[in-house]
Amino acid sequence: MKIALVGNPNCGKTTLFNFLTGTYNKTGNWTGVTVTEKEYQYKKNKEITVVDLPGIYTESGQTADETVVSKYLTENKPDYIINVIDGNVYLKSFVLTDSLIKYKIPMIVAVNYVDELDGETVEKILGVIRDRYDVNAIGISAKKRINTADLIETCIKTAKVSTLTKTNAEKTERATDTLIKEDTIAYKRQKLTDAIDKIVLNKYLSIPLLFVVLTAVYYLSNEIGKSLALLIGNAFDRLNGSAYSFLIKLGVGKPITDLITDAVIKGIGTVICFFPQVTLIFLFLTFLEEVGYASRITYLLDKILNKIGMGGKSVLPLFLSCGCAVSGILSTRIIKSEKERQISIYLSPFMPCGAKMIVFGWFSVTLFGGNPLIATSMYFISVFSVITGGLILKRLIKEKDDSGFIIELPTYRLPPIKESVAEVFDKTKDFAIRAGSVVLSVSVLLWLLSNFGFTGYVNGNVNASFLYYLGNGLKYIFYPIGFGDWKSVVGLLSGLFAREGIVESLTLLSEDGAVFESGINAYCFMVFALVSPPCLASIDVARKELNSKKKTIFMLIFQFSFAYSLTFIILHGYYLIKYKSRLIFSVILVIIISTLFVASLKRNFKCKKCSKCGGKKKCQKNSKANTIL
Amino acid sequence: MNMNLYDGKTGEIYRVTEISSSPAQKQRLKAMGLKVGTDVEILGIAPFMGAVMIKAGTIRLALRSDLAKKIVVEKQ
After folding, report:
1. What is the distance in angstroms between the Cα of B39 and the nearest Cα belonging to chain A?
2. Full-prediction pTM beyond 0.80?
3. Are A328 and A27 in contact (CB under 8 A)?
4. Most confident residue range from A236-250, A369-383, B45-59
C-alpha cells in the first residue's frame, strides 16, 4: 500500500516524512529540493510505503518538480494522498489541493504547524477545508509531534475522494476572505517576521548584514575546518608511516606497499581532510535555509545577479562552490529558469573551492614566500571571471526564459535541530561517497601512471613513466600561456581528477617545486587551475544536472577557452609591462580580444532588421519591426 | 487611480485590478496567492531597484520589477 505526501515547498512535509518512516536517509539534495520521489516503509507497518514528493505550488508541469509529481500521481497511482498544508499560509495551498482532486485518489488534509496557531484559528481552518473539499482535515505539527503518531492510521480509516463543487468553492472562498479580513489568523509569528524583516531587509542595513552573514559562514567553516583538517592530515601521515614499515616487515613487495601507502591511504586521507569543512558549510547552509534567510538573500541580490545572466538564487551555487563545486552545482536545482540554471552551472566552477585554496596556499608558501596577496588575488580573479563569463554567456545562451521571478519569503522559524543535524550528516555522507570514490580511483590511477612505463615498474624514476610521455605530448598546448613544461602539464592533469592532486604531483615530480621558470609562470598556472574545467567529480555532476551531452561539451569548451584567454592576457599583459620589447605583439593581441569581446556584447542591443532607427541601443520599434519584417 | 505595482509606495495597500503577464506566470502568481482582487501591501524594494516585496494575506512574495510592472493595481 502506498501513501503519498503532497504539499507546497516549506510546508514541513519532509520533517513529517522523516518522522513517519523513522529514517533520515535523505539524498544529498537541498531543503525544498526533492527532485525525485522518495519511498520508504512506514516505521510501524512495513506493508505500507510512504512517498515523499517534491514540494510544489501547482502541478501544471512547468518545472521539473511539478512534472515529477504529476507523473507519479498518474503512473504510480498511490492508494492515498496526505495533502500537507502550512497552516500559516493555508489559503494559497488551495490551488494545489484543487488540482489534486482530478486524480480521484482518496485523501486527507494535514494542516501543519498548528503549534504556531491558536486553537480557535485551527478549528476555523479545518472547518473551511472540510467544507470545501468534503474530506477529513487534521491539525498536526510535524516538529512538535502533535497528531503525527497515528496519522497514517487515520488516513487509511477516513480518507475519501474529494468532491469539490463550484458552489462549495465559491462559498469557502468567501469564508476564507472574511477569515483574512477578521485578522483571526495567528499574527504573532507574522508580526515577528515583519519586525525581523524591517531590520534584515532594511534599505541601508540589508547588504552590509548579508555581507556579515556570508563572511561569518565562510570564515567559520574555513578556519575551523582547516585546523581540524590539519589534525586529520597529521594522523594520516603517522598511519602511513607505520603501515609502510609494517608491510615491508611482512615481506610485501615495494610496488604493492607503495601503492597501498602512497595511493590508497593518502587518497582516503585527502578526502577525510575535507570532512570538517564540508560538514560546517552544510550545517550553516541548512540553518540559513531552515530559518528562512536563504530566500531573503535571493530577494536582495536578484537585481545584481540578473545583470550577469543569473538569478538571485544563483548566489547559493556560487557561494557553495567556494566550499566545493560539486555541492554548488547540485544546488542549482532550486533555480527555476533554465537559462539562469545553465549559466550558474557553467560559472560555479570559477569559484575558488576548498581544494583550489589548498593548491593556492601551497603555491604562495612554497613559491611566493607566503605572500598573502597571491592567494587573495585569486578571489578577485574568480569574481572577475564570474562577471565576465556571465556577461558573455548571457548573450550566448538562447534559452527561452518565462519563469519570471516570484519567490516566497517564508515566515522565520527556528530549525528543527534533530532533522537539521541528520540532514547535514547525510549530505556529508553523500559528499564523502561521491568525492571519495573519485579521489581514491584517481590517486591509484595516477600512481600507476607515474610508477609504470614501457619498461614496467620504474621504481621512482619518473622520467621513464607513462606520465612523462603524456606530459611531454601535451606541453605544447600550454607553452603560449606560460607553462610548457611536462611537469606542470602533469600537475594540471592530476588537477583535472582532483585539484589538490596538483600539489601532490608537483611535489612528487620536483623536490624543490622548481617546475616554473619564474613567479609569473607559476601565477599563470594558478589562474589556469582556478578557471579551467573543474575536477572530474564536478564535471560528472554538471553532466547529470544539465542532462545533455551537447551542453556539457559546450561547458568544457567555454571553461577551457575562457581560462586559456584569461591566462594569456595576464601573461602577456605582464610581459607588456616588464619587457617593452614585446609591446607590439601584445598591443595587437589586446585589440583583437577586446574587439571580439565588445562585439559579442553589442550584438544583442542592435536592431538588425529595422532600418528606421539605425540600430540604436534602445530602439522603441524594435520588437514591432522585427515581427512585421 | 490605476498604476502598476512597481510604482506603489512602501507601506501602502493596493488592490490588484489586472494582471497582464503570460498565462504561465498568471497561474504561478495565483498559486502563490496573488490574483485579481487580492489586496497587497508593499513591504519594500530590494537594493539597486530590484524586486518588490509584497504581502498578500499572510504570504510574503518577492516579484522581479518586470513582472511587477505587469500587475495593475489601485490604491485602497
Report:
1. 10
2. no
3. no
4. A236-250
